[in-house]
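Entry 14. Structure prediction run on the chain below.
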Amino acid sequence: MTNDKSLHTYLLMQPDTPATMQKIYDEAVIGEAKLTSNGFFVRLFPDAPSRPPVGVPPTIMVVEDDEVTAILIERILVNANYRVVRAANREEIAVAFNAKPDLVILDVLLPDADGFDILGRIRANGQMSTLPVLMLSCLGSLQDIMKGVKLGANGYLTKPAESKALLAAIEEVLS
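Output returned:
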């Protein structure tokens, strides 16, 4: 792997060989252990964008179809001095990207879309390919984490996510 390619780009470009799948599996096992121990799993990529300048609160796009959960996440983030843009479906997601988010918190199970599919589209889009994405889902099996890793998620949290774990994951990805 060359230095100018991130791990997620590298993994996406590789055929599903036994060696590649073993790397993904190994990383997912580590992710599952971290998810169990501290409530989140984060992976950093060398080409991730840098944090916005000091004084400009980062904008976080929250993609969550459950309104109560979305409101709770928004309150947590606003209290931590983040700007928030919410989306609950495919149409709202397209509009929310106009806000140029610094990070996306992405639910996997949406009424008209699959979060993994959306993640794949983000990674395939040249302008957004390095946008940090944290998956947030009630799905937390090793297979789900493997899928997120393969598609290039920067992190994975399970619902209900503790506010401390959510904020720690965001800080780790944005720092």
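Residues 1-7 have pLDDT under 50 and may be disordered.
Filed with the rest of this week's runs.
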